[in-house]
Design a protein that fits this description.
This protein is an alpha/beta fold. 56% of the residues lie in helices and 7% in strands. The protein folds into 5 domains: 171 residues, no CATH class; 75 residues, no CATH class; 146 residues, Nucleotidyltransferase, domain 5 (2-Layer Sandwich), CATH 3.30.420; 179 residues, no CATH class; 98 residues, no CATH class. Helix 1 packs across helix 7.
Length: 727
């Protein structure tokens, strides 16, 4: 815990408020006229390319700094017109001045610069002076006020942060350097009727920035001392905690550890249970999918975690120690059957496995035989990772990956190349992470290709050429590799193959709707994309198609994917919609297994005919217009009322995911603690409650579908070790 004095805690709170307001204000400024000067490289606008020099920066706000040449950590644009540079610089400085006036009051000197490095030359070498309004008589500057001078000096140092404290705390030398005789250096004090505690200290922006830095360091101190993953700061509950503690003001008492484990945990448990029940209430209408997530811990135990996904949200049920069942298909079948019964057989559309072991597959077959209405599938991201893994084993691809890893290992293992890399690629990194190994490899390879020009420039720079590393054999080898056109051509060929497959993952995991209606079409388009990228040469693309078809036929494909493709109105009405035996058999198989009773099945047939012929109320003019603007399941809920049996069937299929539980990146340590032995019943129940609360809170605040490039947790950092070190 952070043990702060009450006064310090108040200062920290105020600084946090200012800091978050400052960040929010800067983020809203970035998207106005500045967008005409750059091109967003992704939908989140997190990467922006300058229109004048082609450099990529992180967002439109940094583009504004790039064009204006303002900031130490942003390279100035070399191609922007002078009027654009001047305009951006003026806008940035004016905004900073407005915020400074608003937050800390009126500046004593109207021409006080905002930053030292943009200050005009001063005829007087003394530091710019600031005004402190405070009832301190001029006669008090004598020897008799030493205690008060020390107290005020210490107060200034406390507010200045570490860097200002160093400059203000030089003692005798600082006093002697002040020729005016003022013992407080550059701070002027005027006599008023206000009290000292209510005085306003007017500081330059760098002092304000230092106070923010001081607060940020205190937060960092807590994180590092407690061993907390820095990604935790992204949780919405962290900001809510900060805001609530600021509103409490003076006298706020941090809860004791026994309170956290006692009544606070109980209250959170009640809140989470309400959320879980709310999610459960939609299962009967939309159906749901049981997601399996398994791993082996350091003790050699095989643990399995059960999640349930639906359009209303994803919830955590429980975790089990399956060490005694993992190699026994019958034991796994019994375990899975209990979970299906708990969720409700009538609600479960599919069980998505996290892997395809022989025991897991055998248990899945037994489960489907017992419960004919549900399907056993394997996670799509796991299967696409298998496809990329097999592609990575091809000789020419293996050579490209080996060479690329030589480059990154060299850069990340030596200080000078690492610093040059950070400067040349705008503070970013070459290595990209994902929770799946092969996807990480090819994301990183694609990122290296996108930074080709920057890397070549880096190894031709004076800083590199004049370094000792450049004359060493390894340095020469890496430099030659970076400047080798054949390496870059081979890298481009590999990315042409892998990018279409990674886009499938982005389609099914990075969208805002359930992907069941899109996977079948996305995989077909990926194959066609690979064919087109390789010039339609059969000798080049057919071996890759064979790899994809092998995984599709033996691992990934399920009748649900075919039915989802057929029932997706956006795809169904497209010009390139194609129905083959795989699609029709998949659709009919789902009807037979999921629709109860021959009478209901018979009613669906004419409703399907109306849908197929684009006639009747199922597809009126408004429905046709909205088919590409709404998620497929929502479209059926809105426009399928006159075909109730088909509507219910379509909604259940189109509401399901294709990927497993790994994309949610739930922490494993709490589940591992739950299954430790030797606790009392009360302690064991407390740990179970903590696991239930933690996982469901994380799931509640996590988007149902997110970009796989963001699916990375601290437990997966080992995936990229071979890109950074030889191991």
């Amino acid at each position: 815990m952070l043990h702060l004095r009450v006064k310090d805690a108040c200062n920290v709170g105020k600084s946090l408020v200012s800091f978050f307001l400052f960040k929010a204000e800067m983020s809203t400024e970035a998207g106005d006229a500045i967008e005409t000067h750059g091109l967003a490289m992704d939908k989140d606008k997190s990467r922006v390319q300058c229109n004048y020099c082609g450099k990529e920066v992180r967002g439109f706000n940094r583009l504004k700094h790039h064009l204006g040449g303002v900031g130490n950590d942003v390279a100035a644009c070399i191609g922007a017109p002078d009027d654009v540079k001047a305009r951006m610089k003026d806008l940035l400085l004016e905004k900073k001045k407005e915020r400074l006036l608003k937050e800390v009051g009126e500046i004593y000197h109207p021409d006080l610069p905002l930053k030292r490095h943009v200050s005009p030359p001063l005829s007087n070498p003394k530091r710019a002076q600031l005004k402190l309004t405070h009832p301190f008589p001029a006669s008090s500057y004598g020897e008799g006020t030493a205690e008060m001078r020390n107290r005020l000096s210490q107060n200034v140092i406390d507010h200045a942060g570490p860097s200002q404290s160093a400059s203000l705390g030089k003692g005798k030398n600082a006093m002697e350097s002040n020729k005016s005789g003022n013992p407080f250096g550059g701070i002027h004090i005027s006599s008023t009727s206000s009290k000292m505690e209510d005085g306003d200290v007017i500081v330059k922006e760098e002092v304000k920035d230092d106070s923010f830095s001081h607060v940020a360091k205190l937060i960092g101190c807590f994180f590092f001392e407690a061993g907390i993953d820095p990604n935790v700061i992204k949780l919405s509950s962290f900001q809510k905690m900060i805001d609530a503690s600021i509103r409490c003001g003076f006298g706020f008492r941090v809860p004791r550890h026994d309170e956290l484990k006692g009544w606070i945990l109980e209250e959170q448990l009640k809140e989470v249970c309400k959320h879980v029940e709310n999610v459960r209430s939609c299962w009967e209408r939309t159906g749901c999918s049981i997601l399996l997530d398994g791993w082996s811990d350091q003790q050699g135990r095989s643990l399995i975690r059960f999640l349930v996904n639906s359009p209303q949200g994803t919830i955590f049920l429980r975790s089990v120690d399956a060490s005694d069942a993992i190699s026994n298909a019958d034991a796994l079948f019994v375990l899975f059957s209990k979970v299906v019964e708990e969720v409700g057989v009538q609600n479960v559309v599919q069980v998505i496995a996290h892997e395809k072991s022989c025991y897991m597959e055998a248990a899945g077959k037994k489960l489907v035989e017992k419960y004919r209405s549900l399907f056993w599938t394997v996670s799509a991201d796991y299967c696409i990772n298998l496809i990329l893994e097999k592609i990575g084993m091809l000789d020419h691809v293996k050579k490209v990956l080996f060479d690329a890893k030589c480059i990154t290992r060299f850069i990340y293992s030596h200080l000078l190349p690492f610093e040059l890399m950070r400067k040349c690629i705008q503070g970013s990194y070459l290595v990209r992470q994902s929770n799946l190994k092969s996807i990480s490899d090819f994301l990183t390879l694609g990122n290296i290709l996108s930074e080709r020009e920057n890397l070549i420039y880096m190894f031709k720079s004076e800083a590199w050429s004049s370094s000792e590393l450049a004359s060493r054999p390894l340095g020469k080898k890496i430099c030659e590799l970076v400047n080798d056109p054949f390496f870059w051509a081979s890298t481009a060929d590999v990315t042409r193959v892998t990018i279409p497959l990674i886009r499938v993952l982005q389609k099914i995991d990075g969208g805002d709707t359930a992907p069941m209606g899109f996977l079948y079409d996305a995989m077909d388009r990926a194959k066609e994309g690979i064919k087109g990228n390789l010039g339609g040469e059969e000798a080049r693309y057919l071996p890759l198609w064979s790899i994809i078809d092998e995984i599709w036929d033996n691992y990934l494909h399920c009748p649900l994917h075919s039915a989802g493709y057929y029932l997706n109105p956006n795809l169904f009405c497209s010009n390139d919609f194609f129905v083959d035996t795989e699609v029709t058999n998949g659709l009919l198989g789902c009807i037979v297994r999921m629709v109860e009773g021959h009478s209901s099945q018979a009613l669906i047939v004419p409703q399907l005919e109306a849908y197929t012929l684009l006639s009747g109320a199922t597809l009126n003019e408004i429905a046709v217009e909205q088919r590409s603007k709404m998620p497929p399941a929502q479209w059926w809920a809105s426009y399928g009322h006159q075909s109730p049996e088909l509507q219910k069937f379509a909604i259940k299929i189109l509401s399901q995911p294709c990927s497993g539980a790994s994309r949610f990146k739930l922490k494993k340590d709490i589940s591992e603690l739950v299954h430790d032995k030797g606790r009392s019943c009360i302690e064991q129940q407390m740990f179970c409650n903590m696991e239930f609360v933690q996982n469901n809170l994380r799931l509640r605040d996590t988007p149902l579908y997110c970009d796989p490039r963001d699916c990375i947790g601290p437990e997966d950092s080992f995936l990229m070790d071979d890109w950074i070190s030889k191991g």
